[in-house]
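REQUEST
  id: r-88c1
  op: predict_structure
  target: Molybdenum cofactor biosynthesis protein B
  payload:
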Amino acid sequence: MSRQESPAAEHHAAGAKSVGCGVVTVSDTRTLADDRSGDVIAELLAVGGHFVAARRIVADEPTPVADAVRELAARSDVAVILLTGGTGVAPRDQTPDAVASLFTKQLPGFGELFRLLSYDEIGSAAMLSRACAGMIERTAVFLMPGSTAAVRLAMERLILPELGHLATLAAKS
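RESPONSE
  id: r-88c1
  status: 200
  body:
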């Protein structure tokens, strides 16, 4: 049985066609004018039929990152929050530390699959990524590295194929 014929294909077909997303770039140096990774996320969402309900650039500090995620998770027009930046091992990379404590559920498959796919592209350096995902109540949250190549990989191969289905599942009570 192919993936198109699988029971999952039926669920995907019933998934939301347009999902409101919050995009957060974690950076001490980026602005909206030069935020290439945020631009890639917004462009790929549009191509997939989804929309950016809010976009932020926040300093690479735990409190502003957590505050931005909390604010977006509380919005009724945001079903998914996509963060880029701060997921490595450098001292300033604190995004997972700031956000993981907000998760009500972990989605470990995202980080595992992201590192597997990254390994095919960049080799053993993939293990340095702390990309992860989880839920904050009914809002899905994905943390991606800051590089545009990593964002494109995560969005095209993992997030966009599941976005509508995930949003529909999360909305159920």
